[in-house]
Amino acid sequence: MKFLIVEGDDIKHGLTTDKYFLWTEQVLRAKGVNPRVVAEVTTSSWGIFVGINDVLKLLEGKPVDVYAMPEGCLFFPHEPVITIVGRYLDFARFETAILGFICHPSAVATQAFKFKLASGGKKILSFGTRRMHPAISAVIERSAYIGGVDGVSNVSAEKYLGIESIGTMPHAMIICFGNQVEAWKAYDEVVDKSVPRIMLVDTYYDEKTEAVLAVENVDRVDGIRLDTPSSRRGNMRKIVEEVRWELDIRGKRDVKIVVSGGLSLKDVLELRDLVDAFGVGTAIAGAKPIDFAMDIVEREGKFVAKRGKRGGMKQVYRIWDELKDEIKLFNEKGEGEPLIQKVMENGKILKTFDMHEARKFVLKQMEIIRELGVEERFLTCS
């Protein structure tokens, strides 16, 4: 029995399209209509652009040119992140997959970016792949990593991305032992010594009691994790303050505090001065997809666009020290650095983007935001 996963060859051959593109192909071919067009992918929000490599794999070998922002680039409303130039029937049915390759990954990266920006330099860990289909685990972790998280929990990242996964312990392990102390001691004895000893301290008793139990009964405790459920949470800041106090008065100032469990951006902003690391799940992995759309903006060399869109192939120029963009027609000169670059020519891939370089690019942009003092512009709570 196979898992219900669409195979790569089916995606490559356009099986994952929306049906109306097949009707469109049928009509255009029957009438001999196949104009040379320029199609742009834009949205009305800001974000971090991710997913272009898969788009290029999809279009490889097709007689089209592709232009794009570099992966990891911060984009703003109405800016093209991808531009495709070619005969419409050569890429029409692939619009659905093209958008699918970037809408959710860019959203995950954008949420990761927000959480890392909000953390004040504290660690953000991606804990949310369990909320999404396992077939896209590596996509989620790659996007979160590019967006700025400091670690990812899904083991698939090691095989598919070449980055080490991280983790602590589940409540299930502690319950299997029937005793927190026995479970913590066993973890310390068995797990590789290179792994930080982060003890989960909210299974049976309150967090303060279990934190004290851990540091007083286990030889090595590098940190404690609070995964407090919402039904028991109350004032989370007070809980963390109590735990920190009890650790400190026992000479355990070096023991880190990790918080996880349904965290929002607001939680991170409120706790970042107390907490050393945040395990963020659904808010990153289950990010609401960015509503990218693809629209024809030129037909046979003439400007065209539907209502609400802007005609003409465009370039985006960025003035980095102001984080200010200017949108111009593609062949017009603007101020700053041009962001749109040619990445495919007549179906031949000219450039792909390295995950680690994309992450460095993201962190550089984050630093510019901090230097400009405009964090609030990007920290809409969600």
Note the topology.
Blueprint: H1 8-12, H2 19-31, E1 36-42, E2 47-48, H3 52-59, E3 65-68, E4 74-75, E5 82-87, H4 95-118, E6 123-126, H5 137-147, E7 151-152, H6 156-160, H7 171-177, H8 180-190, E8 198-200, H9 207-217, E9 223-226, H10 230-233, H11 236-249, E10 256-260, H12 265-271, E11 277-280, H13 282-285, E12 293-299, E13 302-303, E14 314-319, E15 324-329, E16 337-338, E17 341-345, E18 348-349, H14 355-372
Helix pairs in contact: 3-4, 4-5, 5-14, 7-8, 8-9, 9-11
Overview features:
alpha/beta, seven-stranded antiparallel β-sheet, six-stranded parallel β-sheet, 14 helices
Provide an overview of this structure.
It is a single chain. This protein is α/β, with parallel strands linked by helices and 382 residues long. The protein contains 14 helices and 18 strands. The chain has helices at residues 8-12, 19-31, 52-59, 95-118, 137-147, 156-160, 171-177, 180-190, 207-217, 230-233, 236-249, 265-271, 282-285, 355-372, and strands spanning 36-42, 47-48, 65-68, 74-75, 82-87, 123-126, 151-152, 198-200, 223-226, 256-260, 277-280, 293-299, 302-303, 314-319, 324-329, 337-338, 341-345, 348-349. The protein has a seven-stranded antiparallel β-sheet, with helices on one face. A six-stranded parallel β-sheet has the order 7-6-11-10-9-8. α5 links the parallel β6 and β7. α4 (95-118) packs across α5 (137-147) and α9 (207-217) packs parallel to α11. It is elongated. The two termini are 39 Å apart. The model has no long low-confidence stretch (mean pLDDT 96).
